[in-house]
Amino acid sequence: MTLFKFANIILEQNPRAVSHPGLYCRSDRPVFFDERAGEWCLYGAGTYDFTTYFNALSVLKLRRYTSASRFFVHLELRGASCVYRQTTGDAFSARPTVLEHTAVQIPASDEWATYDFELSVGYDAVLAGFELACDGPVYVGACYYALEPAAPLRDVELCLATTTFKKEEFIEANIAAIKRSILESDEDIAHHFTMRVVDNGRTLDVERLQSEHVFISPNDNVGGAGGFARGMIEAMEQEPRATHVLLMDDDVAVSPESIKRTYNLLRLVNDEYADAFVSGAMLNYEIADEQWEDTGLLAPNGLLAPAKPPLRLTRFEDLVYNELFRVPKDVAALRQRYAAWWYCCIPVTAIERHGLPLPVFVRFDDVEFGVRCAPTLMTMSGLCVWHMPFNARYNAAVERYQTTRNTMIALCTAGHAPKEGFLDELHNNIRLELKKFGYENAELCLDGFEDFMKGPDYLATPGVAERTFMDSNRMKERLVPFEELEAQAHELGLTDFYISRIDRQFIDSDRARGLVERLSDFATDNRQKLFVNEGEGYAVIPVEGWVYPAGVIRGKKYLIIIDWHNRCGAIRIKDPERYAQIVKRYKADLRQFRRCGKDVIRAYRERRGELTSAAFWKRYLKMA
């Protein structure tokens, strides 16, 4: 019997592990790293349960994705006596079930002792794991899960491609972790792994960071789409040629174990999943056990949504839900599920078949690529990154300009005309910004729409993507620090506005509207047409563009928007004349779309193959 090591049982030293130890081990006594011994210690008499997000074995998915049917756990222990028991969880488990018949008494030992157990895995098992009931301190060495493959292992050359722009703190930490835990390890991945960092900011110290298997490529600022395109090209042209490209954002934290398990999974996959993408979940950088997204969905109108509801991954019932989740049949039939590029592993064969990303700079490149490829997706507990949540990094230039333009381009190239729904979304976004006096943001929506209408020639022009991104950032609403915001408010006569008097509850509050008020707001866009008035007083509202606190903003002259995550804000002043100008511009844009929109849509669709080809990208990136 030949066993294949699949997943290390890990404990980590970092702020995430310290604040949320239940991601690794649930216990009634401390687990700590003994600096003097250089080993992990289960400290004192107690029960230590490893049936967790990182340390449970995803037996249901391993049975689905691979040919494995037998599973084993390998333990290396020393210290006090303890009792090993296997655990498991099925579809209805709120907590791990302890299998008493698997109990094994492990004697005390001052020397390392090795134990191997086959896991008892029922037909209905979703997760399997183990617990140790210790009589005193027990040190934990190299422990891991292994399985018995029923088919030959696949040859895999994994290339991690990440693109960065002046994010040295994140990218250098990830490079160091990968060198230490992957390239310097004695595991098989060390001989079949390359990391390629595309440096769009040209700020990284190439000589210091580059090594035999880590390559830094200084690049023009071509956004995430351009950086990932270059990473894909380099992966396909390296020697030995990559079989898979793992795309990962620069501003994330990652456990190297996630990458190891991705590699091992690729070696084991059965024929059904040989061409599948591996999608890593996005966990909240600030609340480490909170899962924000584990694959996403694209609606016909261009709106994006996580496939799963928010989950807390220190709750066992949520781990089970996470593993069992199935996309509803009506949604699956649309074939518009995608894997975001904060962590997405793509077979090179898919790139050869479907092409590279569109040159859209940032936003929607991963969505369009995923919808275009319509791949089978593999997800699994322990495959993830930690990323700052979306509401902590709201940027109107991205959400209003980039999202408007790139969504419409993506819908066209994927064969969905914008009139199928996204024009309604554009209309709603513009009206929402106008009702909240967000005139700059409404104009960014129109800028994106108008640049979309310029067609694929404009998109394909080198330098346009960066210039339009920079222009939109210059034109977006300027937020100022709280102290300056307070001073501006007082200069406008809002002398009762003090930052010290507001809090998150006040910022997020709203009030209910009656039917007459709702009809009035709908007809007048907060009294900026038909029955126009200047308004009076002010309201305080959140910065996020999708928020609509309709009750508190109605009838106001000033709106003070607050980005409490970044401790800044801005003051908007009602301006019916500017409102009218924007509406006039919007109507003119719609008339132009009615005249030539079909031609623009057809042009994007017909040029997709060219814009996603290696020949195009090499010219665009000045690699040719």
Describe this structure in words.
- Helix content is 36%, strand content 24%.
- With 624 residues, the chain is α+β, with helices and mostly antiparallel strands.
- It folds into 3 domains: 4-148, Sandwich (Jelly Rolls); 158-392, Spore Coat Polysaccharide Biosynthesis Protein SpsA, Chain A (Alpha-Beta Complex), CATH 3.90.550.60; 396-577, no CATH class.
- Helix 12 (422-435) runs antiparallel to helix 13 and helix 13 (439-453) packs parallel to helix 20 (576-611).
- The longest helix has 36 residues, at 576-611.
- The two termini are 50 Å apart.
Relevant terms:
624 residues; alpha+beta; Jelly Rolls; Spore Coat Polysaccharide Biosynthesis Protein SpsA, Chain A; 3 domains; seven-stranded antiparallel sheet; globular
The structural domain count equals: 3
Poorly predicted runs = none
Q: Got a strand count?
A: 31
Rg calc: 27 Å
Tally the helices: what do you get?
Answer: 21
Shape: globular
Q: How far apart are the first and last residues' alpha carbons, in Å? A: 50 Å
Proportion in helices: 25-40%
CATH architecture of the largest domain: Alpha-Beta Complex
Q: In percent terms, what proportion of residues is strand?
A: 15-25%
Look at the helices and sheets and give the structural class: alpha+beta
| CATH fold category name of the largest domain | Spore Coat Polysaccharide Biosynthesis Protein SpsA, Chain A
- Reading off the top of the CATH hierarchy, the class of the largest domain is best stated as Alpha Beta
Oligomeric form: single chain
- Tell me about the largest β-sheet: 7 strands, antiparallel
